[in-house]
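Job type: complex structure
Entries:
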Amino acid sequence: MVEIEPSRRWEQSLRYFRWKLTSKVSDTAFEDLRKNLIQDGVEIYDLRAIRSYLCEQLGIERRRYHCCPTGCIAYTKQYANMRECPHCRIPRYYESLELVEAALNGTGPFTDLTPRGYYDYIPVIERLRQLFAIPEYAEKMRYASRLRREKDEEVMRDIWDADGMKHWETKGLGSLSHSLM
Ligand SMILES: [Zn+2]
């Protein structure tokens, strides 16, 4: 359910989350701060809850992908059904191979499996939609059409002034890219 008025706890959590982003604080350091705040009587939500809350409020759908915990691969495309990393051989899940096989064969519950590594991804279209929803960023993202209006043949200002882009413009594709930017 979408909350119209965030509770005091949510308001505090979002304020600290904003501080985390603007100050470039790591997830680990934020969690450390959160634990310290709890000792001082200030209870804010953890990062997982805050990110889920924001996605829900903004209508953002995240996609979760499993990956090797040491960063070798993501379990997508040719790796999608693998049970272990083909490079370092670290198993994909914490559970026993029997449970994993049962889940992947459809004879056991898939939801019981816990991946050793994963990341959440917000699709690029969703990112663009959110950026265009902020007037300041929407204006910045239209810079290519501004460049086109303010032609300067003497200077290479950006990729949009490159020969390749000019070529596509003659093919009628330039207006498409400019309309996106
Ligand atoms: Zn690996």
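Summary: The first helix runs from residue 8 to 22. The radius of gyration is 23 Å.
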